Amino acid sequence: MSDRTRSIVIPTALVLLVIGWTAARGSAAQPWRVIAVGDSRGDYNGVNTPILTELASRIVAEHPDVVLFPGDLVNGAGDTATLTLQLTTWRTVMQPVYDAGITVLAIRGNHENSGPVAAWNNVFTGAYAMPNNGPPGEVNITFSLTHKTAFFVGLDQYSGHDHRVNQAWLGDGQLDDGQLAANTKPHVFVMGHEPAYKANHADCLDDYPTNRNTFWASVAAAGGRTYFCGHDHFYNHARINDGDGDPNDDLHQLIVGSGGAPFHTSYAFDGNNGGMVPLMQYFAVAYGYVVIDIDGLDVTLIWKQRMSANNYTALETWSYTVPPNVGDANCDGLVDFDDINPFVAALVDREGYESQYPGCPWLSGDIDGSGAVDFDDINPFVACLAVGECL
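The structure corresponding to this sequence follows.
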């Protein structure tokens, strides 16, 4: 770096120090919550309205930002009018959730796929619509959403590609060719209706194992640790062992088909597992839902099981931590003004930084990828602050 360039950059560092010492505090990421539950079909106009009504009340009481509902909302029907009526019933039962300002992300299951997609679009429109960034022919049924420190993906697994996802739109999680690669948030949550690894239903993503393997690898490459699905009517949490000896990088399949559909009582991971080994973590034949708590880079998932009417108990808890994105010098999941002091600390005193921010990697401040945190990272860091992420 030339002396002239350094003379421009050093004052920038001094400005950062001043801002870091004087900026108002309180912008650090606050803990927030997501809930996952699916398969609510039943006998009341296609919906198990007693259970879904109870779950809607529970969801509101949990105060999540987002609800993930991976399909089979209703029994389904072959004609548009009947399917529209069923989906309207579902939406009406869930109205308290919408009224509470909670974002509802739902995808179609095989039962919604029994009728025209027009019925889905008739009901999930306007304020009820899904994000409209899906691929051609799948808008409103395949989508992604960035919210706070997370990136959500909902995948329709039908639309002319039964038991598969639109991989070209999703991307491989590495090259700049799809949704996963474009994401800059540390938390990645993906949902589809069908399990990637067979538990009960034989018809699932392993009908096309090569496609399933590509999909699974893409989520892993993007930093995802979970895949939420339904189809099987129970709660089934499995770690999908990839055989590398490190359980901390394995993805977990969470079947949350526990929203009211008639129960399935057995499972077996005896499909085409593509060399992976599904390892059961928890299994329950019961109604319930999963709470996903996000606190900085830490994620805690809690299975809450219905023990009796309006009585739910936490029976399984699992946690993991994701690595910070570049620029997130204090490891809270955000790139913001609260990263200035830790960035400056990393710049001038690596040992002091590692002592003050244990668990945060020093190289989270290496914005330009040089392998060190140095003066050449200052201007790129300022650019990150300007947009809230390092692009």
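The two ends are 23 Å apart (CA to CA).
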